[in-house]
Every structure is written in C-alpha cells, then in structure tokens.
From TrEMBL:
One of its GO terms (cellular component) is DNA-directed RNA polymerase complex. Belongs to the RpoE family. Residues 90-153 have a biased composition (Acidic residues). NCBIfam families: RNAP_delt_lowGC. The lineage of its organism: Bacteria, Bacillati, Bacillota, Bacillota incertae sedis, Candidatus Faecenecus. Keywords: DNA-directed RNA polymerase, Nucleotidyltransferase, Transcription, Transferase. This is RNAP delta factor. Coiled coil: none annotated. PROSITE patterns: HTH_HARE. Residues 14-80 form the HTH HARE-type domain. Residues 84-153 are annotated as: Disordered. GO terms for biological process: DNA-templated transcription; regulation of DNA-templated transcription. It comes from Candidatus Faecenecus gallistercoris.
Amino acid sequence: MGIKNMSKEELELLSNKDITNLLLEEKGNQTTAELYQKIIDALDLPQSTFDSKIGDYFTALSTDKRFILLEDGTWDLSSRHTSDHILSNIDDEDEDDIDLDLEEKDDEDEMMSEDDEDSVYDSADNEDDDFDDDSDDLKDLVVLDEDELELEQ
C-alpha cells in the first residue's frame, strides 16, 4: 500500500521511519532531504518543521537497522543489500585507517631528534625535583597513633 493511497489520518498514525520504509519500497533510493520533504508534504506540516527537525530525522534513520546510507548519499532498505558487501567495505576502510595511523607514527618518530628526546627526559627529571621540595615542608610533621591521642584527651 503506497502513501498516496493512504489518508492523512492513517499517515499520522505511522512514525516517520515507517513512512520512510513505505517510500523506499515504492520509489527506491532517495536522499534524506527528498524523503523528509515527502513526509512533510504528506502530513501537510509547515516548512519550518522540515528546517528544524531534519537533523533528528537523519539520526532516526541512522539508528534504524531497516535503512542503509549508501556511498552516493542516498538511503535504501537494508534488505536490498547483502551484508557481505557491506562488511567487506567496512573492513577495507578500517584497514586503510590503521595503515595511515601507523605511517603517521613512523613519521613522527623519525622527526624527533636526540635533543628532543633529551628535553623530554629532562622535563621528567624536573617533576621529581618538585616532589622532593614538598617533602621538606613536612619535616616538622608529627604523626600520632590512636593510643597517644587518647592520652592527650
């Protein structure tokens, strides 16, 4: 049953995601803006609703497993796409990201000179010196155990 055959009252009972599912079944791939504009038109909502709620609509589609965002920026039904193809694309992208990260780390390591390494080591030594200075402030500190406290009272 297409949304054109449904009354406004019937459409109002459906969620935006359910209407999107019907639209994608009828027409195939569409962009977020195209889909949401068709929903706004079908429900006879003001254009200000489109402007203020399209981000929420995009988030709703992103989190719903029925829909998939394709590389060309259009949405389609996940049931029309095999999971093997989707997973292989994700795996390839992840491997590329890891390779780039490793190359960047290698470049950073090569760029660090011995002087830089010495300055990093020296700054660590200075932190230890600061700790020793604090211990001088505590030389007059007296520690009492519980028995001594009871005697003083």
